[in-house]
Please model this.
Amino acid sequence: MEPGAEHESDQPQRQDRLALIEVFERDGRMGRSASVRRWPLTLGRALDNDVVLDDPHIAAHHATLQLGGGGRLQLQVGDSINGVSVGKVHHKAGAQVPLPPEGATLQLGGVKLRLRLPQEQLAPERALPALARAHLVGPLIAGLALVLLALLDHWLSLDPGADAAAWLPMVVGLPVVLTGWCVLWALASKLFQHRFDFLGHLRIALPWLLAIELLDLVLTPLAASLGWPWLWRLVAPLQLLLAVLMLRQHLMQVLPQSGRVVTTFLVAAALAGTAISLAMTQRATDRYSRPAYMSTLPLPALNLSRPVSAPQLVQELAPLAEQLAARVKKAREDEPPEGEGSRD
Amino acid sequence: MPVPLVSTLIVQSLIARSLIAMVACTLALPALAASTPAVAPTLPAAPAAAAAASAAQPASAPEATLTGAGQRIYERTRPRLLQVRTLLKTQDSQSSVGSGFLIDEDAHLITNYHVVSQYALQPTRHRLVYATVDGKQGALQLLAFDVVHDLALLKPVDATPLAGRGAVELRPQNDALPRGARIFSLGNPLDVGFAVAEGNYNGPVERSFLPTLFFGGSLSGGMSGGPALDEQGRLVGVNVAARRDGEQVSFLVPADPVRALIARGRGNAPITEPAWPEITRQLMQHEANLTERFIAQPWRNAGHPIYTIPVPQETWMRCWGQGTPQATRGLQFERSDCEMDSRIFVSGPLLTGYITVRHEAYDGSRIGALRFMERYSSSFGNEFVGQDDRFRTAGQCVERSVSAAARVGNGSKAARTTTLPLKAVICLRAYKKLEGLLDMMVLVATLDGKTTGVQGRMDAHGISLASAQRLAQHYLDGFAWNPAQNTNPTSPSAKTASR
Model:
């Protein structure tokens, strides 16, 4: 061990420490750290470096950290093919780069390092998941409500006096599906976070699923009562939006550092999916909503829609026919010039 | 009850696409409508060749016992009898085959529109050819057609091979044929060879919108357009269709429309352009007539204790009823399906020019209000509106909450003016080739009952916008409270009981 850098186990004298270098493993976890007690500090694969990095993409003497004019710390890139990235900026061999006083992330070959300096801003302490038991009350209530809703839904679909076995798919199916969902996410957490975070994902899934269910439960009858087909058609897209938000939260739990990537990916996927689905619907039906009309009927007591007279409704056929005529015209323009259509 | 049997009517046109494939058409009926549950027809549909063969069998049976009349008629008509083939222009294979007959010394001939429909719609891709019993062949021209009655008038390009063969005489209009009279249908079934099928004249088909004759004999594919003659060899009708779910139930186009087509089409120039505009014109006339006559008829009442439900008269429609078994624990309902026999063949998959009306009356007293609403809604939702296809645009709808016009009976108490709340959806589809014609679907659900309700659906195919508006209005006007139920608590029961 060179005198410049020491491992933490060597009983350091804290006041001597000028900086700390953390070396990350490939999965993003910190592998080891070295205290810096004097400048300059050399990094590379050769044994005479202060910090020896064993990576085939690193040069023998890859980089040097030294104090420049005015006491500012700077990076001198050594004789290397791959160079050094500071943050997101790449520097070639021979470059001299001043480093920010609050520290920086360095990429040397395949190795990621973090240089921590005394001026760095520390993030506040985060509570351990295990200590957040109190936060389970909300999800628990959401879970109960979700089960109740599912039971109600199933009850509605059964005829009175139905066989008890008819409840099995619901009673068994719902917990199995919910558990399966959370287990899959927990496995993803295990992969990226090294933590089987089943409860964490359950806490995410339950409130969102409840919200998705409630949206249908409230908006669908409301649309029927008010006679607003547009609101009725909005229910499915809104549910989809909630589902995307739920996915985002699951993903954030798995990849907390990649917030922007996750959001970008989800927005892109949702937009692409929506566009494809709209295009397919439009092709088949000339509309952007698959159902041709609002099929939910209001309960008699809650029927608040303002009725029109039959002749008024019949009047609305004329503009509809015009719209169809335009569609026919377009279909004719699209077809081959011979204009004889059918091929039997 | 003959319900399952008759609810699967399959009327097949009598052209042979090939020897095997037969086309369901012309007067075709409910089995084609998505609404009717399909029950297996009596003849197996899968091995079509077997079905065709068995259909052809009865035709040969009477031949064995053929009397002198049959021989005489065949001998006399033989020179005037033709096979009409539609061929693809680029090759010699036939795409459809039917029969035809000469109707004058100038060698004009009559066949069914559906025999030559491919040519009429795509004259640049097809050509028409005749073949006589004695093996002569030649090219044909299409002069005129009557798509509504399924008739076509043709002329050979070169009349000389057909000259001097005489003509099939039309039976005079005023000379009614008695029911049960022996008649002879001629044609070339399944391209097997020219044949005579003997049978009986059974008068006009009952409850048919278009005049159609009921021939108690066997007709097979390929005989379409052939003549059906009385014992004197005069034309009674033109072979057009047969039912495949029964035995010896066949149909003829009567002589009157034949006479009219000859009169108006004889001098016409040959048709060389796709005939969509002319078909549209004829369908427009038909739909105006149909709408007029449909609206002129008052609705029948379905006999529902609470609602007046529009059910059409059965003068040219047939209604079939069906209900859930009494022991059902769930939602109970009764349904009624009314359909027209007459449908107009335009091309293979396209039949139009007809109306269907149906309703379902629901009773949810055994399942309660919430469950009733759930099932009532889903029943309202599972109606097919129609997607974009070759012939029609996708269905587009308007929907509203509608208050049915208050039906004031003989009294005029204030209480009786309460209106019946309805949800109404009207969807239209436009025909891409038949410009100005629409398919309309009117969907209605009553909204007042906690555990009772009625949902009705009327479909009108191939109608104009004006007719669509009139028919929709007519149908919506048919929904109301049952006046007997709505006056006061004591009198209605007496009235319903007397119904």
Chain B touches chain A through 73 residues (CB under 8 Å). Residues 1-10, 16-64, 408-416, 486-499 of chain B have pLDDT under 50 and may be disordered. Residues 308 and 482 of chain B are 5 Å apart (CA to CA). DSSP finds ten helices and 27 strands in chain B.
